[in-house]
Fold these 4 entries.
Entry 1:
Amino acid sequence: MENDITNQQELLAKNLAYYRKASGLTQLELADKFNYSDKSVSKWERGEGFPDIFVLKSLADFYGITVDDFYQSEHKAVKVSQNKKRKQTYLKLLSIGINWLVTVLTFFLLNTLLSRFAQDAPFESWLTFIYGTLTTGIILLVWEFIYHNRFLRMIAASIIIWTAALSLFLTFLVVMNLPLPLLFIAAIPLEVLEIIWYLFRRNRKK
C-alpha cells in the first residue's frame, strides 16, 4: 500500500515537471501565474511537497488535461501552448491596433488644429507617428513582462531605446532646430546593456 502511494507521488512529481516543461514555462514563470514561489514549484517536482486538489485542478485546466492525467504514465498533449499563444497574439494585435488608431486620430486632429489656428507653430503633426512607434514598443514590453517571453521583451526594449532616441532627436530638430546626434550614441550603451542582461537571464535560467 505504501509502495503504491509512493509510486503515485513520484508519478505526480514527474508529471508536474513534464507538463510544465511541455507548456514552455520555467518554474518561476509557472509560479508567477499561480501566485506561488518558484521554490514551491521546485518542491512539487522533486516530490518533497504537493499542491492541494484545488491547485491541481487549476493546473490541469491550465494545461488542458484532467487531474487524473497527473497520475498517468502516458502523457497527453498540452493544449495550453497553442491556445495561449493564439490568445496572446490577439491581445497584442488588439492593443497595437488601438494604439495606432489613437495615433492616426491624433495626427489628423493636430494636423487640423495646426493648419487652422497655429500655422506658424514649430511642431509638426507627423511626429505623432514616431511617438506611436515608441508607444507600440512600450505596449509590447508590458505584454512580454506579463507573458514572460524574454527574447521578445528584449526586442521590445530595443524598439523603445531607438524610437525614444529618434523621437527626442526629431522633436528637438523640428521644434528648436537643434540637432542632437549624441542621442543615438547614448542609445548604444543602453542597447548593449539590454543584450547583456538578456543573455545573463537566459544563462541563469538554464
Note: Helices lie at 2-22, 27-33, 38-46, 53-63, 80-117, 127-147, 150-176, 182-205.
Entry 2:
Amino acid sequence: MDISKIIAEAKDETIELRRDFHRHPELGMQEIRTGNKVAAYLAACGLEVTRLNQTGVCGLLRGDRPGPILLLRADMDALPIEEETDLPFKSVNAGVMHACGHDAHTAMLLVAAKILSGMKKDLKGNIKFVFEPNEENVGALAMIEEGLLEDPRVDACLGLHVWSPLRTGQVGITPGPVMAGMAHFELVIKGRGGHTATPQDAVDPILAAAAVVQGVQAIQTREIDVLKEPTVIMFGKIQGGTASNVIPDSVTLSGTLRYLFEGPQDSPENPKNRFERVVSGICAAHRAGYEITYRYSHPTLVNHPEMAALIGSVASRLSQRPPEIVSFVTLAGEDFSEFAARVPGVFCFVGAGKTGKENFPHHHPNFDIDEDALQTGLALLVKGALHFFETADQLRFLNREAQKKK
C-alpha cells in the first residue's frame, strides 16, 4: 500500500474541510456544528464515537491486532476576533474567527482518521482520535476527568500545531519543554476608599497596584536564570475607580504567568508561589489586602524524548524532499500539556508561513496559513501513528509499562 499516494490524493478533501470549518467558526464550548460534523464523519469511517465535555468528540479505532493505545488530538475552538482577511471562505459568524489554525488541525485529523480506518486490519493497537473543545481555556482537562484516557487506557499521545512563524517546509520537533506552562490570574488589591484631597485617610489600592506591576518584574529578571527557567509575568487588564477625585476601595489586575520548565507545584520557587510572595510583601507595605484567583491553568508542555525521536524519524522520511526539522520552543501556552503530563507524548509545529508574503501572527484578525502545510501535518499524523505501532516493541517506556502489568 502506497501511503504517500493515499495522503496526496486526500489533499483536496483536507483543504475543503479546513475551509468549511474556517467559514463556520465557533467559540469554546459552542462548537455545536463543528462537533456534530466531526462525530458524523468519524461514524461514517466506522469508528466508535463518544461525546465528552459537551461539544468534544472521541472516535475509537480498534485495530485488528493487539497493541498499545495511541491518542491523536486536534482542537476545534475559534477566537472572539472579527476577521479582516479577504479570503473567499472567511468567517460568516460576526466577531468569531479561526485565527489560530484549529480549523486546519480538525481537518487534518479527520482525514487521518479516514485513512487509518482503512488500514484497520494491519493496525497493531488502537487509536483514539480526540477533537477537543475550548482549548484556549483548557478544555482538555474536562475530557480527561470524564475518562478520556481510560477504557482503553492510553499509552502515548501525539499532537501538532500549524505555525505561521515557521515557513512551510519546516517542522519543529524538540525533546523536553517546548510550550509554556500557563496560568491566567485575577488579582484584587483591597484598600480603603476616600477623597483624593485626604489620601492619608484612605488606603490607596491604585498605588499598591502600580507597585505590584513593577515589583513582580524582578521575579523574571532578578530571581530566575532566563536561560534555564524562562518565566514571563504579564498584565493585560487593570480596572479600578469611578471618578478622578475618588480613591477606590479596590483595583483588579488580570494577566498571565508563563514558564518553560518543569518543577513541583508546592516549591517556593514555583512561579505561582514567587508571584504571591512578592504581591503579599508589596500589599503589606501599602497596608492593603489582596486576593489571587487562577481562572484556569495548565502545566508546561514537555515532549517525551522517545516520542520526539520517533516523530523526528518520521518527519525526516516524509517524502523525497523531507521537511527541514528545526528546534523550536515558545512561551505560548497549549493545553495538550494535560495529556503529555499523564502519558508520554510529543507535540510538533508544522510550518505554515507563506513564502514571499506577509505572515500575520496567531490570534491576529488577518491570520492565515499556507494550505500546503496541511499535507505535511496529515502525513505526520498518519505515518507517525503507523511508525508508533511498528516500533512499539522498541520503546522503553512501553516496555516498562508492560512489565508493570505482569
Note: The chain has twelve helices and 16 strands.
Entry 3:
Amino acid sequence: MFVDSHCHLDRLDLAAYDTGLDGAIAAARARQVSSLLCVGINLANANRVVEIAQTYEHVYASVGIHPMDVENLDPNDDPWSVLTRLASSDKVVAIGETGLDYFYSNDSATVQRESFRQHLQLAAKLEKPVIVHTREAQQDTLTLIAEYGDSERGGVLHCFTEGWDMACKAIEMNYFISFSGILTFNNADALRQVAKKVPLDRLLIETDSPYLAPVPFRGKSNEPQYVVEVAECLAQLHGVTLEEIAAITRANFERLFLRNTSYYTEKLGQT
C-alpha cells in the first residue's frame, strides 16, 4: 500500500529487532509499507545498498555520492565507472543521492557542482531518474538540472524543505517533490503550505530514515514504517483519504522509478 521512496536501510538502528534488518522490514510491512528505496550516499556503502535491494523483494536501490561526501573522494578513484557498473543491476532504479548543500559546506561548492553535473549526465546516459538533495542552493540546483538533466527521465527533490517557487520550477522540469517527517513538525507551517500546492501527481513520501522521525516519534530513530505518518499529514493537507494518498504516491513512485523495470512492464501487461 505505502512506499518509502527514500530511506537508508544500511544505517538503521536495529537494536530493537532480534532479526536485524529483517525485523525492520517486517515492521514496515506490518503497517502496509510494502516497497522501499534504499539510497546510496557514497562509494563506501554503494555495494551494500545494492546487496540489500537484491536480498529483499520490493526493495530497490540507488547509487550516488552525497554532496557532503564529494570532498572525501580519493583522487585516484574513478567513481563514475563504479556507479555505472553498480547501476547495471536490475534493482538499481536511480542515480543519487546527489545535489548541492551550501548550508554545511559552502567552501566545497565548486566541487559539489562538478559532482552534481556528472551525476546528472550519468543518469541521462543510463536513462535513470536522479535523487537530488538541495539545501540553500536553490538557483544552482535548478540551473544545473536545466543544463544537464534529462527532462524525459526527470527525478525528485527529496526531503523537500524549500519554497513553492523552487517546487514549481522543478515540477516544470519533470521532477517530483518528496516530503519527509519534517512535514509533521510543529514549526513546519510554511512547508505544509507548500505541500498543499504540489499537484497530487507530483507527490512522493519518504522517511529519510534513520533521520527526521515524524511526530509522534520525533526524537527517536526513524524507520520506514513511519512513512505512514507522513502520508497521513499529506492526506489531511490535500483533503483526501489515507488510502487515496497511498495509492497516488505509490503510482508516482512506480512511474518515476520503476517504468524501465520488469516489474512495471509486467504490471502494464496486466492492465
Note: The chain has eleven helices and eight strands.
Entry 4:
Amino acid sequence: MLVKIILSAFMAVFLSACVTNTTGKALPTADKAKSISSHVQLGMGYLRKRNFELARNHFDKALKLDPTVAGALNGRALMYQLEGEVDLAEDNFLAALASEPESSQSRNNYGIFLYRQKRFGEAYEAFDVVSRDLQYNARAGAMLNLGRAAQKVNKIERAESVFKQAVALDARLSQAFVELADIKFNQKEYAESKHYLDRFARGSQQTARSLWLGIRIEAIFDNKDKMASHVIALKNLFPYSKEYLEYQNSVRP
C-alpha cells in the first residue's frame, strides 16, 4: 500500500500575498514567484550535475518561500531517489502530486520511481494517466514507459498499441521498435519482428538486446551471413552481457 501523505503536514498557512525575505522586508508576490522559479531551475541544474548539496539548498529555499511548490517537491524527490532514500523520495513525489495533481512531469517521474521499485501495476496506472495528457511535451516518452509497464502486467495488446503510438508521436524513440520487434517475435510473427528491428537499426546503434533478437530472427530465416555478423558484434561489443550468455547457452551441446 502506498504511503499516505497528509498534505497539511508539508505546508504552512499563508495569510498574506507577500512573504518576508532575509532582510525582513515583504517580498511582492511577483518577485516571490520569480524567486521560487529560479531556485527550482537552479536546483534541477545542480541535480543533473549530481551536486546534491547545492540542489538541496535551492529546493529548500524554494520550499521555504512556499512549501507547496510541486516543482521543488518533485526535484527533491528525484534527489532523494538518486541518494537511495526511497521512503523520502516517495513522500516528496506524493506531496508534489497532492499539491499539483495535474502535473504530468511529477506523475511521470513517480511512475519511473514505481517501475524501478518493481511496483509495476502502480507504475502502469501512473503512466496511463500521463499518457492521456495531450499537452504534455514528453508524452511520447510517457507512452514508451506505459508500454514497458503494460508488458510487466501482461497487457501485451495495450503495450503494442502504445509503442506504436509512441513512435507515431516521436519517431526518434527507436527503443519502441525493439519492444515491438520483441512482441512480434514472441507472437511468432517473424516478418513483422524483422521489420521493426530493421527500423530500429536504421536510426540507432545496436544494443545487446537488439543483436540477440536479430540473431534469433536471422536464424529463423536461415540468413547465416547476417546471423554471423550479429554474433560477432554481440561478442565484441557486449561480451559480458546476459544476451551474449544466452547466445552461448543456446549453442552449447
Note: The mean pLDDT is 89.
